[in-house]
Amino acid sequence: LNPSLVVIGGSLAEFGDPFLQSVRNEVRQRALWDAIHDVEIALSRLGDSAGTIGGAAVFLDTVDVGTVLA
What is residue 36's DSSP assignment? Predict the structure, then answer.
């Protein structure tokens, strides 16, 4: 996998920028350059709601909303 964006969410995001910088440094040391040169690592702005919002997004993406609302 070569993701272009890695989002750290939930309770880990609450550790803020010092934690984010530690993650970025560790990734730079351990990953191959070709795999990470275009990768952005960011904190989620959704906090602990990320799982709930993500679950709702998957639900809405897989369900025919017209049928559910009928």
Answer: H
Contacts of 11-17 spanning 24+ positions with Cβ under 8 A: 11/48, 13/43, 13/44, 13/47, 13/50, 14/47, 16/43, 17/43
For every residue of 55-70, DSSP letters joined together read HHHHHHHHS-HHHHH-
Given pLDDT bands bounded at 50, 70 and 90, which one contains residue 24?
A: very high
Residue 70 confidence class, pLDDT cut points 50, 70, 90: low
Question: First CA to last CA across the chain, in angstroms?
Answer: 40
Contact 43, 8 (CB under 8 A): yes
Check: pTM over 0.70? Answer yes or no: no
